[in-house]
From TrEMBL:
Pfam families the record matches: CBM9_2
Source domain of life: Bacteria
Family matches, as InterPro entries: Carb-bd_dom_fam9
Secretion signal span: none
UniProt-recorded name of the protein: Carbohydrate-binding domain-containing protein
Start and end residues of each Carbohydrate-binding domain: 24-207
Residue stretches in coiled coil: none
């Protein structure tokens, strides 16, 4: 079962002390049937030799956080996702975390050939969660922030020890698969008939190769 070690759950923002390298706006809505005008999301990314830092933020009218287990179906909740491959590897990682910090991480070459990473590795990913109500243009939103501190050694299939020695290709996503009004947003655009984030052909170079 999911245990909340390495997670701080707050009702307001705490001061951010990190200087971020790059901001990615998650605003592509590739599938017309699921286009939602009231969901906003972005992620700030930075790294040092030992850790990758991802700070996700979203605003939406409805949120859901049902799943607590490690490697559970968090994509059905209000969820942030980061899919990434290293260098010339043909396989990639899918990191998925709902707004309360429940986490899934797997590796493989395509959607139906995934290998879940061990829970002991997932427990080493530090997570800070902030959830607050926010009034915008007389409309009530829920603002969710998820800060991740991911050890480089998490990416065990690539034997990553120093992030500066690798090129990263990937995509960022925001989704809510089982919400009353499901949504599927991406940073880089995807072309497919139905919602499908497991499309590595649409991964893009993430150019952050400068130490903070």
């Amino acid at each position: 079962m999911f245990k909340p070690e390495n997670i701080d759950l707050h009702t307001d923002q705490k001061e951010q002390q990190k200087e971020f390298i790059q901001t990615f706006i998650i605003d592509n809505q590739p599938w017309i049937s699921y286009q939602e005008q009231d969901v906003f999301a972005n992620v700030e990314l930075s790294f040092d030799n030992d850790f990758l830092y991802l700070n996700f933020t979203s605003m939406e009218k409805q949120v859901k956080a049902k799943y607590r287990d490690y490697n559970g179906k968090v994509h059905e909740d209000s969820c942030f996702e980061f899919f990434v491959r290293f260098d010339e590897d043909s396989a990639y990682y899918n990191l998925e975390v709902n707004i309360i910090g429940s986490i899934k991480l797997a590796y493989g070459k395509e959607r139906f050939s995934r290998q879940f990473l061990p829970i002991d590795i997932l427990k080493n990913i530090e997570r800070d969660v902030f959830i607050i109500p926010l009034l915008k243009d007389d409309t009530l939103y829920i603002e969710s922030t998820l800060n991740l501190k991911i050890p480089a050694k998490t990416f065990v299939y690539n034997k990553v020890t120093c992030l500066q020695n690798h090129k990263l290709f990937g995509n960022f996503y925001k989704c809510g698969g089982s919400l009353e009004k499901p949504h599927y947003l991406s940073w880089n655009h995807i072309v497919s008939d139905n919602p499908d984030f497991h499309r590595p052909e649409f991964f893009k170079l993430i150019n952050v190769f400068k130490e903070i």
